[in-house]
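Hi, here's the filled form for the chain we discussed.

Project: internal
Contact: R.S.
Residues: 90
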Amino acid sequence: MDGVKVTIYNREYNLKADAEEDKYFLRQIASYLDKKISEVASSTPNKNLEQIFILASLNLAAEFFILKNKNVRVKQRLKDLLDKLTKIPR
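And the returned structure, exactly as it came back:
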């Protein structure tokens, strides 16, 4: 099994990944996480590392739930449209 090195908030981590696409995906995720942590750290300079990570995690969880809810609404809208299309008399 191969791995990929990523840097998150100036710390290096070795993650397991077999395929190149998995490595690319992990790099993207790590880069996004690093960006979010850096944003929190710069906007809350008095916070310790644990607090910064918790705040960044809360921000990411909020993003996740917003997108998850949006996805549910889009799926429902698509279902409603499909139902209308299948009820059209031919």
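Let me know if anything looks off before we file it.
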